[in-house]
Amino acid sequence: MTMDLSNLKNQQGAASQATTAFLVVVDTDGSVSVSTDLANPPNVERSATFTDIRTASHVVQEDTRAMQISGLVQQQMMAVGQMVQQQMQTEALAKSLKL
Questions:
Q1: pLDDT for residue 7
Q2: By the 8 A CB rule, do 54 and 86 touch?
Q3: On the chain, which terminus has fewer CB atoms closer than 10 Å, C or N?
Q4: What distance in Å separates the CA atoms of residue 36 and residue 79, rounded to the nearest whole number?
Q5: pTM of whole model > 0.70?
């Protein structure tokens, strides 16, 4: 994927077609968030600089990576839990058959 950064100037009123869109917002306290609500854009103090874009992009990338890893760990924990439950059921069945 490539990104054309040559047109970073303010493009208010520039109409274009897009497949999807989202806002990366840097709050006044410096925290970065992503919003898909384009109908209610935040009030901004200033235009984003290249450094703002680079820093916020890095934060979003790292946070989404952490979310992905967390989801994988959760899936593995659920799988282990199911295996333990199946093993306990199997042991209980084996114990009951020895009666």
A1: 56
A2: no
A3: N
A4: 32
A5: no
Chain position carrying tokens 């490539």: 2
Rounded CA gap, 84 and 68, in Å? Answer: 25
* Cα-only R_g, the chain: 24
Please answer whether residues 8 and 25 qualify as being in contact, where contact means their C-beta atoms are separated by less than 8 angstroms. no
Residues of the chain falling short of pLDDT 70:
1-15, 99
Q: How many helices (H) and strands (E) does the chain have?
A: 1, 2
Query: Under 8 Å CB-to-CB from 56, ≥6 apart: which residues?
Result: 24, 26, 32, 48
Phi, psi of 88 (to 5 degrees): -65, -40
Cα separation, 61 vs 84, in Å, equals 35
Q: 40-52: per-residue pLDDT in tens?
A: 888 999 999 999 9
| Contact between residue 47 and residue 10 where contact means Cβ atoms under 8 Å apart | yes
Rounded to whole angstroms, the Cα distance separating 78 from 71 reads 11
